[in-house]
Amino acid sequence: MPLDAKMVVECCEEFSNSHDRLTKLVLFVVALLEAELKKRNVMARVTGRAKSVESLRGKLAKWSHDKNKAALFKTRSDVFACVGDLAGVRVMTYTEHDRDLVYNLVKENFATPAGKTDFDTERKEESARIQRDKSNFYRATHMQVCLRPEHLTDGYLNLKGSHCEIQITSMLAHVWNEIEHDMRYKGDSRALSDDEVLMLDSLGLMTKSGDHIISSLINANARRVEAQRQQEILSKGRIKDVRALSDALEEHFGATVWGKSPSYRLNADALWDTVEALKLTQPKDLFQVLSPSLLQNTVKQTIPAFSRYLKRTDQIRPKLAAESCDLFLIALLEGSHATIAGLAKTNRGPAKRHLFFAKAFVDFRSSQEA
Q: Are residues 262 and 187 in the same domain?
């Protein structure tokens, strides 16, 4: 039989009995997403809830009065298979650009529920219904997820098979959607005045331009904070030892340097010997030499060419390690030819690492000029 008042009551009673379990699922999903977003430094807010019994009752009652809709449901299972947001989580990113990043994060951390394919993913703005409606500015990615087997530990065994809808949208798109949803969906859209429709449309257009403004604001803030950080580094006193040098380099350059992820401790002694010899122990002086353009050229061109030269001339010990402080050592060699040539000539006895590379680098450059 189709969805009727009796089935509505039965569905609501069944849902009421599972409400606590779905609330536990939502709390788990929210906590996991918040932790992953923080780990990746993604600016976003996460909220979640299990649908209220009254909200479900209202939705089903509305469907039961639509003959075509009601005919789709023969059993309670049909109803629950159709209502995907009994447990719902919304991720609101600061920028539209991060929506795909969060989508991939969700795929990495959850599983697709049984009977669904690829998380039942739907980009709402690509649906025919929204594309036909030029006044609909809803932009969001909806996904159905369940917990992975490793999540189903003792306290969460009863969540096996339970699924949750995750909606990923930008904050501004979320604002428009909430207002539009309350006015058009929950209310009577036929009663909206021309002014209301115009203002909803204007707000929708503002969400798109607002995304660009927020992105620009975040980038401007990041530039200001980075400039302040760099100024603090440069204003510090003389670098006194190899450990202080490693700390200064890591603080200044961060985790990656033009695609390389250098270990700021590995081969730091040889770099420190070079920094002292070149009298670059003031951060301002050192980082003026180690400019972005010099480091880019060092990573992309100098190190590969120098490595080939060392191999060709059988100078394979010590081995040049590009993802260590050797990166900065070669950059200093690149930026200080004359001084380094003199430094290499002072070598007496067994060559230290920095002197070996200094001499080899002078010969390398000479071979290129010949």
A: no
Of the candidates 64, 77, 86, which has an alpha carbon nearest to the alpha carbon of residue 2? 64
Q: Do the Cβ atoms of 111 and 145 come closer than 8 Å?
A: yes
Statement to judge: residues 142 and 274 lie in one domain: no
Helix axes 268-277, 242-253, angle to 10 degrees: 100
Could you give the number of structural domains in the chain? 2
> Any bridge partners for residue 144, and if so which?
165
* 85 shares its domain with 168: yes
Distance CA 326, CA 344 (A): 16
For 363, half-sphere exposure in the C-beta direction (CA atoms, 13 angstrom radius) is 14
Tens-place pLDDT, residues 317-331:
889 999 999 999 999
- The reply to whether 227 falls in a domain is no
Exposure of 297 in the CB half-sphere (CA atoms within 13 A): 11
What single DSSP character describes residue 88? E
Same domain (yes/no): 246, 208: no
> Alpha-carbon distance 362 to 341, whole Å?
6
**pLDDT tens digits along 252-296:** 898 999 988 999 999 999 999 889 888 889 988 898 899 999 999
What are the tokens at 364? 């390398």
Residue 364 structural domain: 242-369
> Are residues 160 and 92 both part of a single domain?
yes
